[in-house]
Records
---
Amino acid sequence: MKFDTAYSLSLDEKLSIYDVRDLNFDETTAFDSDKDSFLCPNDECRATFDTGNALSTFNAKNVNYLRTPHFKNKTSTRHIDGCRYASTHKTTTGENDDEREENFPSEWLLTRRQYERKNPVVGTEGNVPLDPTKAPSSRISTPLPASDTAPDKTSVFAHPVECYVSNIDDKDKLKSMPLKIGDHTATYWTFFKKIEYLQDNKGLIYWGKIKAIKDYTSSFRIDFEKKVWLDRKPYSVNVYLSKKLIENYRKRKAFLEQIKAAADSERPLYCFFYGVTPELQQVPSKKNPDQTFGVFSANIENLDHLIIREAPGVEGL
Ligand SMILES: [Zn+2]
């Protein structure tokens, strides 16, 4: 049994596991999922038990993961009769249902979800709860209306990406599941575009196998393996991550840990991004500085909309 959401005791809100990951890595938020308690999202069920009747998390804090993150029942977790989150099968069936993301959000919100901490963190002494009436001055964007935080919407890019990657062997499903991004609605299948076909359409989620990550210490360039063809000529594709972008990122530590490991990794890694479309540019040649060559390139503008990860199974597409 995988949960679409769980109730966070410290935030008094229902969160997806991707929200939890986002909060764990966010250096501007005092949140640690190990110090929180996650309870059944069914209001009636949750009200029946005390707050010790908690769920456990899987891959809530792992920067790089292969298996789909999720909340799950502990052996001791109880539910009321008829609660749809009650485990329906015996433990002997193994964990096969953990291997794919089944909760497809119908909309990916490009504005980040905001949280107001309502309850003190459980089990930590001397922790001063934030006064919800005083928003930190750094908080610029206004909170989303409650209707926009319904479970079928997500503001965490990793969620639709996990839906795509973990269900890559089920094209019919990806072709049938709707996804809305901004003003556009399409299917998961249509929204994810291989990097070599980026000229087909703008405004999609482009992805491809990483050829190399150039580490310039405070900035990075991600080179893709596949080339874009234009007028019968192949062009390299890359995206550039500026120093300023990384320094101002609220998940800077986790991001640097991930990209530095990726740069040294021997394993096949893929990059997914949204929001910019690489375009043909002329750049000076290193060997002959008075010569230029063409490359499809873009500057990433929002690190929340970029993911580097393993993606077994996408190779055969
Ligand atoms: Zn329940």
---
Amino acid sequence: MRVAAFTGTDGPDDVAVQEQPDPTPAAGEAVIEVAACSINHHDLWILEGDSGMVGTDELPFVSGLDVAGEVAATGPDVDSVASGDRVLLCPNETCGTCRYCREGPENRCEQYSLYHGGLAEQALVDADRLVALPESVDFTDAAALPTAYMTAYHMLRRTDVGANDLVFIPGATGGVGVAGVQLVDALGARSIGTTTSATKADRLADIGADHVVESGAIDEIRAAVDEIGEPDAVLNHLGGDYTQLGLALLRQGGRMAICGRTAGDRSTIEIPQLYLGHNQLIGSTMGTQPDLETLVDLTAAGAIDPVVNDEYALDETGQAFADMQRRDAFGKLVVQP
Ligand SMILES: NC(=O)c1ccc[n+]([C@@H]2O[C@H](COP(=O)([O-])OP(=O)(O)OC[C@H]3O[C@@H](n4cnc5c(N)ncnc54)[C@H](OP(=O)(O)O)[C@@H]3O)[C@@H](O)[C@H]2O)c1
Ligand SMILES: [Zn+2]
């Protein structure tokens, strides 16, 4: 089979299509004929040699978490899926025995890791991690859901966002950002999204952002949000200075979930603002398989319509990463092997 492999860690030029042996499923496993695999900033961190989660000692490395397609073969003892089934992979990998695997939520597993290998014609996966896809959800839309939408949805759950709440989403135009805006809308809450691009600002309004702030300057964003109102919650995937900004903006008792660090690993926070404001800072990573099942149901019901910026053939995978790196995209980028 053909795979799009990372052959180095100098960025998008280090993606090459290579031949690898077709996988054979062992007990509990299934092989998926990959119809679509979306890419995430997580893959780009690996390709840039800057992932906090995945080392690249062993190159070539085949990344790609968000796999949708048809089951091509199953190993012994697999009866949850059969050849020909339409499925979406939940990329969580968990130990199954720690207290969080037993009590939940599973994404806090003490051995938590992620599936990689979807940027290929076939993917060898754990059959228990496959979610059934109804005919009404196409593979490309489905592949947008796992990492970006599942993470945003889990952050909204952890920050207790309810109807009419005001949610601040800095950097609202990428995978997690667009998912956040759409899910906030679906919950009957209101969003404030930011972007540095005029073109992307227009698209944010089109997908249901209630307020759009076109700026990358912390002081300017702070002044603009002050005019709109005090957020009940912040979805922060940028980290860096956006962390203190989010804390400064939150209402008394407001909550900020943090899942990323695109704008920097560190932030200096005003500690009195945290305790006098009775605020919560919540670290959050990915979500649970039931979260993903909910998102498939919401998509099938038309409550959310995943935003796919562009589709790429397997040999255009490097181009997809270059587009992400240049901040050209709005929403998700999907490779169709
Ligand atoms: N912990 C987890 O489970 C988890 C899950 C998913 C994602 N993440 C993390 O969350 C982040 C977002 O992931 P993603 O896949 O959604 O990425 P993405 O699609 O590349 O995100 C693009 C968004 O980030 C903004 N942005 C990019 N660089 C920026 C910078 N230097 N300063 C300010 N804004 C910047 C862009 O703003 P413009 O519109 O201005 O271009 C755009 O809105 C990544 O750090 C990723 O690793 C973590
Ligand atoms: Zn575990």
